[in-house]
Amino acid sequence: MRFALIFFAALSAPAFAEDISLVAPVYSQLVVSPVPDGFISSFEHAEQGYYIHEAVPSGETTSHWTQMITVTGAEGQVTTDSSLGLVPMAQNFAAGYAAICPKSFTYQQFPVESVTGARGTIAVFFGCGAIEVPDKSPGGPGAEAAVVVLAAGAKDIYTFQWAQHFAPEAGSQTYVPEDWQPRLEKLIRGAKICDQVAGEQAPYPSCTQ
Fold this sequence. Notes:
Blueprint: E1 7-10, E2 20-26, E3 29-35, E4 39-47, E5 50-57, E6 67-74, H1 86-99, E7 105-110, E8 120-128, E9 143-152, E10 157-166, H2 177-190, E11 192-195, H3 205-208
Antiparallel strand pairs: 1-2, 2-3, 3-11, 4-5, 5-6, 6-10, 7-8, 8-9, 9-10
């Protein structure tokens, strides 16, 4: 594996003083992503051009969770078209989500401020009132929703995701600004993409200070 051990450092921005940031080399660049207060790192893996890191609330697991913060990296996926590959990737996400939610899938894409260091950024919302995959959430398949920030680096595409499970009776999930906008803003403002400095080791001060 080409990835350094995860290093956690306090975010310098006052708005995130209670949170943690995850700093890791992911393919061609360094990626900083927010881990909200109360969440813990639970899983990290890299294989064949795809990187993933997951964090869940303390006491939960990646198998049984109520909320999850996910960071991914797709090696070499930035394209030369106007969307830099972000729109096609968002559409692929949507197709995968719709496949497990054929009856109540909702999808919304909207412009957002750019992630620091990104060449381009878009955000999407996915909602599902009834996931048709067994044991997807505690108590049954249930409902799920997520905001996903997609950011184009120099060569690679990174995503920053915040998902939540709901009880089966919660029903259809739509974008409710007062619920999801604060999470979206925390993902964007806490994320950062930096060039790697030769020989630099964790905590990667060139990117975190």
